Amino acid sequence: MTRPPTAAQRRVIDAADPVTGRLKGTEAQLAALVKRGLAFRHPRPPHDHFLTPAGHRIREAVEPAAAEPAARAPAAADGVFAARVGGEETPPDAGPARLREVRGAWQGLLELRRMTRRDGATDRPCDWERTHLVQAAALALEAAGNRPAGPEGRGYRVRATPQPEAVAVYEPDGTALRACAATLERAGWQVGEHTEPRTNSRYLLASPRRT
């Protein structure tokens, strides 16, 4: 069994950027995390360190989040950014501050894609997105201007599914549903439109594209 990180290493992991996983710490701390497979040193200057998927799992174990199918608030009490998945109890905030947060989170995610690919491509989801499917899809939708559902029920809702690497996107307005599909396709997701047998309502099934 892998030995858990030390208290000092946990503090470095906890302080990582919530979207990109960029780390700050002493050279000794960062080297120790790399040795344990919890971080990697990017080969290109400025040679920053980032959490690996294993490091992200450690971070989430330290700061447990709600299950993906449940709706989350736009930001946790500690100020960590969270994309709106739709269906939150409070009305969606579309003010300038929220728009800046979403734009910054999306740019950070694109940077994470670039930094974790040999070719520096940003057209396909990265490992972090594959382990945070609901949040990743919701961020792509919100960043493109699609409106998450509020208490009144209008807008998109992103939910986990039993299928591996797939989320469902619900939107009562057909035109808005097609706009969500186009957004996710541009963000590097494979999207198919389906019909719910019991309700006859349309929804999207989206998965991160690999090639």
Automatic annotation (TrEMBL):
This is Uncharacterized protein. It comes from Streptomyces viridiviolaceus.
